[in-house]
Amino acid sequence: MKKLRIAIIGCGRISTSYADAFRKLENMIDVCYAVDTDIDRAKSFAEQFHCEYTADYEDLIGKNIDVVHLCLPHYLHPALAIWAMKAGINVLVEKPVAITLQDADKMIDVQKQTGVQLGVIFQTRYNKGVQTIKRLIAENKLGKISGARSYLTWTRPDSYYEESNWKGTWDKEGGGVLIDQAIHSIDRVRYILGSDVEWIEGSIHNYRHEMIKVEDTAEAVVKFKNGCLYNLYACNLYTDNSPITIEFHGEKGRAGLIQDMGFIDLDGMYTEIRNTHDEVKVGPDYWGSCHDVQIRDFYESVLNDTKVSVDGTEGRKTLEIIKGIYLSSQQKKRIVLPFEDTAIEEIVR
Ligand SMILES: NC(=O)c1ccc[n+]([C@@H]2O[C@H](COP(=O)([O-])OP(=O)(O)OC[C@H]3O[C@@H](n4cnc5c(N)ncnc54)[C@H](O)[C@@H]3O)[C@@H](O)[C@H]2O)c1
Fold first, then answer.
1. What does the DSSP assignment read for 232-284?
2. How many domains in the chain?
3. What is the pLDDT of residues 241-288, one digit of tens each?
4. Domain end: 80, 100, 122, which one?
5. What is the residue range of 181's domain?
6. Do residue 30 and residue 47 come from a single domain?
7. Is any ligand 1 atom within 6 A of the Cβ of residue 94?
8. Does 198 score more than 90 pLDDT?
9. Nearest C-alpha to atom 39 of ligand 1 is from which residue?
């Protein structure tokens, strides 16, 4: 089998999960380049794979790279994804796909024009519990789903923001707890329900992080076209990274997730579903454990020229919910889809 020649751009915090995944997938890939403007980070990543490293992503041109992994500050995702796709390189970009819907649209357009693959990382979709509950709901085993809820209470102390030159800003991160941390819960609810959104109402606040301008708390109600009303709460001002809870309430029973573990409460039986694939935890537990599973899935789509499971359009749909909450908070009204994405530069304390 042909081995894919891969490169990673951005060797910061999340790159440990990629190093772990690359080791597991070594029969499919040759890790050829590590790129980071901080050359020491590029070098130390490259040393693990005895590959080349550089501070300038343009050096990848002419090096026959098949796949580039973008692990960059959010605002850089569109420019580098578009650059890579135009150079004929398949792109797997970290979440969020972009920080504006307009940029997400441009990325989707370039993907269509170039015909290379564009994938967006939402690794928690690949957990066994998520897959089982999605199937259960699709098969109507829980009956009509009238309600869904997600609850995320994590901690991001001031030091987390002090150490970063992009987190905690509207122009570079694109928001706070919603676009960075709660995005995975929102994506899982949307993915499991398999329905599009009708309208969004929500509000954001910054209660405890004086040094940043983005939200540390958000709550919202999202109405899906299948009739389900989704309540969400997210904050990163708690004292710990407690397990995320997600629940679906159907007319015949309930199902949900407590962090990575799925549960089903149906017909008087309570069942737990745990991941069974080989796990080597490298990052914090709250990142989830399925980067390698999604990356393998993406490589298979590239090798077999099949549709990518989590493509640019999927990334855009989840971003649209987050942008709808920001807009609803700013305009203090219900946002009906589709809507025009306008920048938010300040929030009400
Ligand atoms: N999927 C998950 O669970 C998960 C978890 C953590 C982070 N992430 C995502 O990973 C991405 C990166 O986050 P992070 O926490 O690793 O950030 P980070 O700040 O630790 O790392 C970003 C790296 O990009 C480098 N960089 C910046 N501009 C560059 C450029 N032009 N060319 C090359 N390198 C450049 C920086 O020097 C830095 O090393 C974000 O999209 C974030 O949301 C995802």
1. EEEESBSSS-PPPEEEEEESSEEEEEETTEEEEEETTEEEEE---S-----S-
2. 2
3. 999 999 999 999 999 999 989 999 999 999 999 876 554 444 555 555
4. 122
5. 124-285+312-336
6. yes
7. yes
8. yes
9. 12
